[in-house]
Amino acid sequence: METFYNVLIDPFVQMYGMPDFFLQVLWEGLVSGVLYALIALGFVLIFKSSRIFNFAQGIMVVFAALSLVGLHTFLVPFVGNEFVAAAIAMPLTLGIMYALAMSVERVVLRPLVGQPDIILFMATIGITMFLIGFGEFVFGGENKVMITEALGIPTGAIEFEPFGGFLLLEEKDVFAVVMAIVLVISLLVFLNKSAMGRAIRALGDDHTAALSVGISLSTIWVLVWFIAGVIALATGVVWGARAGVSFALEVIAYKALPVLMLGGLESVSGAIIGGIAIGLLEKVFEIYWGQPLFGGNTETWFAFIFALIVLLFRPQGLFGEKIIERV
Amino acid sequence: MFYRTSGQFKTTYESDQALFPIKQDMVLLVVILAAMYVVFPMFASEFTYKALLVPVLIYSLASLGLNILTGYAGQLSLGTAGFMGVGAYACYKITTIFPEMNIIVALFLSGFFSAAVGVAFGLPSLRIKGFYLAIATLASQFFLVWLFEKWAWLYNYNASGAIEVRTMDIFGLVVTGPNASPMVQYYFVLGIVSVVTFAMINLTRGRYGRTWKAVRDMDIAAELVGINLMRAKLSAFAVSSYIVGIAGALMVFFWKGAAEPNLFDIPMSFQIVFIAIIGGLGSVMGNFLGAILIVALPVVLNLLPEMLGLSIGSATMEHVNVMVVGSLIIMFLIVEPHGLARFWALIREKLIIWPFPH
């Protein structure tokens, strides 16, 4: 009876009793959910256009953030001004991500065209390992601080007093959410309105047909990996502002995987909705069920188990393409 | 030249489908086994045992387990390390609850626990396929590692949260704990790996192996010819997790001596997937070749600058090492996506018809 009460009634009593705290939890969940959605978006874009499950997305986040911070520290003595250095470092980092996209396409993907999915998946894990070693080799393995102020990201906090309580929104989190929304909208516009975007979607629909109407596979792959790199950079900046830049950031890639399961591997909107849903649910579960009942730290597995249960009812995720099999 | 098959006539189906259809294969195996059992122990130092021989054997066994599931039954799993953990913790609990029990019996019993957990997490495979299943197996990975941390009963309420192996003996011979000699542990691991490998070679050749392969190649078609998909997939999960569990128990009891939950975290899962893929999916021998490459290569790479007289900081070396291994993996995937086992198969075919090209 006691357990029954603890599981089914007590959490809701607490939510109702302290609505301001509940709102705070929801906000935190929303912020991480938006970031999960961003990473998942990088996965989805690459999967849609090339059927490659890109495990390296997580390390690309770290690598982009590291390059930005590393270039910035390198440039500051030369330029003398933090803001100018940041303004130079940003396009340079984008250049690095483009070079990365191109070399991945040239060195790894092109020779592996037509191989089974699992081989390509393994190759992206190989890329991950290479980037881990390369990043540590060039930038060092220690933790770094994201150049939040030089980039002009606000660092204050906004306070509200809903329901006579207290709610604190950090400005950089607000910035993260706003930036994610802008990024997603511009990406959707790009995918739906521009010729390149249509080519990406065409490639996602049918490889052979897209090739036969003259869409260049390698250009699109480079483009898609570059977009994934830009998304990785954006994620790296905002997540780095929250938690510092280190290789531990890579674990957020694992957080994007249940989002993909939930939303479906091919669906852009699925990635966004799934990301936010998982961010919110895992936070709420951790605070109201995980910590009192399971000893905390349930965030490592909750999303996976939740997505697994959803998948049992919809094997292709909530928004994924229906899997049709023929013999 | 070495593989001349002339004069070896097959007069019955049994002899054609025998374990060694060509006599030279058997000779080769005897040579390898002799090297493992006799020659290596004559030269190996304590370092070689601890850093090369025992790890390669244990990882081969874990990869063999994964290969049953992924290579033979076609179900990609990324949660191998979690099941190794189940085996290790089960073995630890069995040996604390029944201190008198023979360690061999405890080892083979602990496999049943990981098999049960494996079947439970394998149930979704009946509905979910492909990458969705691969991510789903990550659920077991994260959940199990979390459980090893939070469930204090598993590690006997130790303050450190780690499990430590006490000294145990078989008929007076110390096999585990800090006092055990590396050579004894090596022979012990080698013996178990040999037995399990022999069993698996025969299992994969037999009825179960053929069922798994049919499911791997096209599960709907397999179902149509009358294969019970549930039984096939779950049996693959059970056998695979059983072997993986034994490998995990061996790892803690005969190699590491102690283990914290994060030993069984996701990097080890990936390492084992790499071994299986680089070695060759759907091959028993590939696991050993892959393990030699993935496990032994970093050790050798670490020693290399010292041999060449270069002085590089150990941290830098570590980074270069990861880079080199990553690039090698990509290179191997490009050169031979079917793995090292396929390489050997090609060489063998060439040798049989040598000196003729066709």
UniProtKB/TrEMBL annotation, chain A:
UniProt KW keywords: Amino-acid transport, Cell membrane, Membrane, Transmembrane, Transmembrane helix, Transport
Membrane-related topology note: Multi-pass membrane protein
Predominant location: membrane
Stored InterPro entries: ABC_transp_permease, BCAA_transport_permease
Transmembrane feature ranges: 25-47, 59-78, 84-104, 116-139, 174-192, 213-239, 259-281, 293-313
Cell location: Cell membrane
PANTHER family per the UniProt record, alphabetical: ABC TRANSPORTER PERMEASE PROTEIN, BRANCHED-CHAIN AMINO ACID TRANSPORT SYSTEM PERMEASE PROTEIN LIVH
Similarity section: Belongs to the binding-protein-dependent transport system permease family. LivHM subfamily.
Name of this protein: Branched-chain amino acid transport system permease protein
Organism field: Pseudovibrio ascidiaceicola
From TrEMBL, chain B:
Keywords, sorted A to Z: Cell membrane, Membrane, Transmembrane, Transmembrane helix
Primary localization class, coarse: membrane
Membrane topology per record: Multi-pass membrane protein
Annotated protein name in UniProt: Branched-chain amino acid transport system permease protein
Record-annotated membrane-spanning stretches: 26-45, 51-69, 101-123, 130-148, 184-203, 234-255, 275-304, 316-335
Subcellular location: Cell membrane
UniProt organism field: Pseudovibrio ascidiaceicola
Coiled-coil zones: none
